Amino acid sequence: MRRSIIFSIGALALTVAAVTAHQQRSQGGGLGDAEGQPASAVVTLLHAQPYVMEESYTGWWRAEQPQVDAGWLLVLRVPPGLAELRQSLTRVLYVGEETAERWNSGQPTGNIVVTVPWERGADGLPAPISSGECIWFGTPELPERVDAARIASERQLAASAQLPVLTAEDLQDAQQVGGGLLEVRDSHELGYAIADLIETYSPEETVTIETLRITPTE
Amino acid sequence: MRNRLVRLVALLFLTASIARIGAAQVGEPFCMGDSCPCGNDDPTAGCGNDGLDGDPLTGARLSRSAGTTNIFADDLVLTLEGATPNRFGMILIGAQAVQNPLGDGWLCIALGSAGIQRSAPQQTGESGSFSQTRFVAYAEGLATVPIGTGTQLLFQGYYRDGGGPCGSGFNLSNALPVTFTAGPVETELAGRALGLYPYFDFVDVFNQMAPIEATIDPTLFPGIQSLSGQAFVVESRSRIEWDNDSSLIDARGASTPVTFSGGDVSGNVFELDAGTLATPTDSRVSAGYDVVIDFDGDGLLSDGDFIDGRGDEDGLTVFRDPTAPGPYATVEATHDHGGNFERQRIYYPANIAELGELPLIVVSHGNGHNFTWYDHIGEHMASWGYIVMSHQNNTGPGPNAASNTTLKNTDLFLGGLDEIEGGALFGHVDGHRIVLMGHSRGGEGAAIAYHKLFVGTYVGENYGHEDIRLVSSIAPTVFTFFVNPHEVPFQLWTGSADGDVTGAPGDTGAQTYHLLTRAEGQRHSVTYHGVGHGAFHNGNGGLVAAGPCQVARNGTHALMRGLMLPTVRHIVDGEEAAEEFLWRPIQSLKTIGWPASECVDVSYEYWNAPSADAFVIDDFQANPELRLSSSGGQVTIEVDALVEGILQDSNGQLQHDPSDGMNGMTRCSSIDDARGIAFEFSGPASLEFEVVPEARNLTQYTYLSFRACQGTRHPLTTAELADLTFLVTLRDGHGRSSKIRIESTGSGIIEPYQRGTLGAGLGWANEFETTRLRLTDFVSGLPGLDLTDVVAISFDFGRPGQSQVGRLGMDDIELIQK
């Protein structure tokens, strides 16, 4: 049985505050008092699958802009209001010590597909995500401005808020759904797998799916 | 001995000068202040005087300050300056050059065969100067000095100078030779009648099928009174074409008889065309015409006829509906270059093989948007002869990442033309005429992309920053401090109802005007009431809007098409007349196809590219003292609660707060320094700016331009919630003044969009708008005002018929040329 990550009452309150702040913002206000607090909004880790690529790509989702050739492909269920993609500052999604790369808006399902660059282990495969790691929405910022120091600071905030962490069972369940290693040539090909996941978990996002399925013009 | 030598040299110089004036019409000044009677030499003017400065070694100068030597225009203006203040003076007129001592100076002209005459005496006023014009009309009353074609006359200023250095009590200026000419009179004729003074708006652009009116102002051209002629509308010709072909062939099929009476403009307006003028059916969006009043009835452009458009510019331009599709069928195709974020949608004319090189418009979408959501731009602009490439954009990380995608996709496109669409575009993309256009984070990304090209942190394989002709940012975020459009023409689109890039003070990264502040070149900004963030694209989701009177996507896209085409035509293609779409208020010029909703309201801001031909009276960037303008003139403040400083709200809230003098301003991040003023009035009040001496000849400029906004949620704004109106007054050195209501040619200053939140009350961020007043309108019907010597510009509030109370922001008061 797949198990949901159940939040503490405190974490849920933070989530509500974050969503409320987001709604206020869409009306033109700034973020509310919850702005400086992390909001752990991940309800369920639905899918986890490691991937490797022959050709790396530039990781624009953090300030260091590392070259990425391996990582984890995750599907998360979050409150749709918090998942919505906007122009203005929104909460950055963190997975452990990495920023997650968003691929869809999660509307209206709340299911978002993300890639998370991850170090390769000694076997050349993406290292496992450890139990005890946290997946959470941090404070609002542009991911491209988030560096290691900022991530460390965000992790401290998350820890202080006692946000729930992944259990071994959570990870095992999600990896069972995700299946084995995904090997692709490049990020373009990775996009096809992402399109399939979006179609499965957030099928209303047809434009995004179609876009990711466009093949290189001969 | 020295005197005789100097005089000989002077007369030799005069001979050469008169020989040259046949070409120059107004020749070189002569008989300067050399070897003056008591050593009071001033070789740059007449002999030294007591004068304005009390320096006996500076004299009075006579020069042409405005107008032409055309006898039919009779608009030559000669100005004597540097004379002693508040004394009588006059202009001496003769035909023979001499140089004899007289008073404290030289008498330089003599009777000659035509006789010597003098103008009516004038007061030199506080500025020690006066101007004289209408010499032809004046001479008509004199038997001895008739002025006709080829008449050569000499002019010299004479003035009282009680404290003068030689004690004679009077002095003279240098002299000036003039040869009068004939030829057609070049002036503005076409425009539209107004219900208020100045009663006529001389404009160049008209919508297809709209009536066009014309006039000649008898107060500016008294010679036309009681004259009759035929009005012609002729297909536009350049100056050379007119030189080669002066025949008048009316584009309407027949000319129109007109007769001019006395009085002012209002009694001399006639309908030039009822809306019949043809427009092209090809990719041209407009047709140009010249207007001629043929007074002698010879069917030719000849001496004494009046013409609007004698030069290379059109006299008037008739625009087709810029919101309607152009003449070309379009092709829409998708191309994937195979890398990360390298998918593109391409729009181009189906008959591209028959066309030359077309400008490229690159469209960069916003976060959560899609590159397929800009058909309303792609199809429209392609139908008018542009190639549009909308690309997948990496906006999730932020606008910096997006900018890299914009840069790379542009390079991929230009470098891949031999493969894209089977090479159909190869040889048909003008890589030196590129528009970078972006929405939201993509809008900021487009500006960042230009910055990277400009500073060299991105070196394009197929293009450089000099190939970018326009950056157009639609509801852009402004997160990055380094984003800067620099000197490239920049256009900003803002929706007051935007629920994402809200424009709210305190909303980090969402204040669009910050980007406008940083632009340094030609700038245009449009703010639409009721338009939300999602209305700018044609994809999924709602309007992302908050506030009343929201404009739907169809309406928003009509607005966009109606502005985008004239903008690109003007800035990229160099079509001069299209500029009027960028600054004329919609009450004056509203595109055909404008949405029918009464909710749609708009404000424009517009700056010409910085030019030495403009003069800034006050932009508040220098001289922070309240009573000193940036140009160094005195500012007389008779308004309340005036503050000068950075144009940025101080607390992030919009409700009225007396401690926040810049409430609602959203022009500056922490690194920006755009300054301006804000003030209020609750009865008669004024704000007067001295015009410093070097700028007082306003005939060298076309418009007085300034920007103003209403102060959102201020009790004096909400007390009269409507367009705010006031008077603008010019005052000359003799105390004569002329006033124009700012709403006369369009509108007052728009009221804030009535959107709530961010504290009590209604009203969103302050919206500046540019007002341009034609300077010659200040003398229409009021020939007394001396435009060559305007000493002060005043904004007068709370006058009868105007807004009685209000709170205003103001900036960039300047004199500009057309």
Describe this structure as you would to a colleague.
The complex is a heterodimer of chains A (218) and B (818). Chain A has one domain (9-213). Chain A contains six helices and eight strands; from the N terminus they run H-E-E-H-E-E-E-E-E-H-H-E-H-H. Chain A has 218 residues and is of the alpha+beta class. Chain B folds into four domains: 2-179, Immunoglobulin-like; 185-319; 330-607, Rossmann fold; 615-816, Sandwich (Jelly Rolls), CATH 2.60.120. Chain B has nine helices and 41 strands. In chain B, helix 5 (399-415) crosses helix 6. The chains are: A alpha+beta (218), B alpha+beta (818). The interface between A and B is large, with 36 and 55 residues.
User: In total, how many beta strands of chain A?
Assistant: 8
Q: How many helical stretches of chain A?
A: 6
Average pLDDT number of chain B: 93
Question: Could you spell the SSE succession of chain A in H and E letters?
Answer: HEEHEEEEEHHEHH
Percentage of residues in helical conformation of chain B: 10-25%
CATH superfamily of the largest domain in chain B: Alpha/Beta hydrolase fold, catalytic domain
Question: For the CA atoms, what is the radius of gyration of chain A?
Answer: 17 Å
Q: Distance between termini of chain A?
A: 46 Å
DSSP E strands of chain B, number: 41
Look at the structure and give the CATH class of the largest domain in chain B. Alpha Beta
Amount of beta strand of chain A: 15-25%
Q: What would you call the quaternary organization?
A: heterodimer
- Which regions of chain B have little confidence, pLDDT < 50, spanning 5+ residues? 1-23
What's the average pLDDT of chain A? 84
The helix tally of chain B amounts to 9
- CATH topology label of the largest domain in chain B: Rossmann fold
Task: Specify the CATH architecture of the largest domain in chain B.
Answer: 3-Layer(aba) Sandwich
Q: How many separate domains make up the residues of chain A?
A: 1
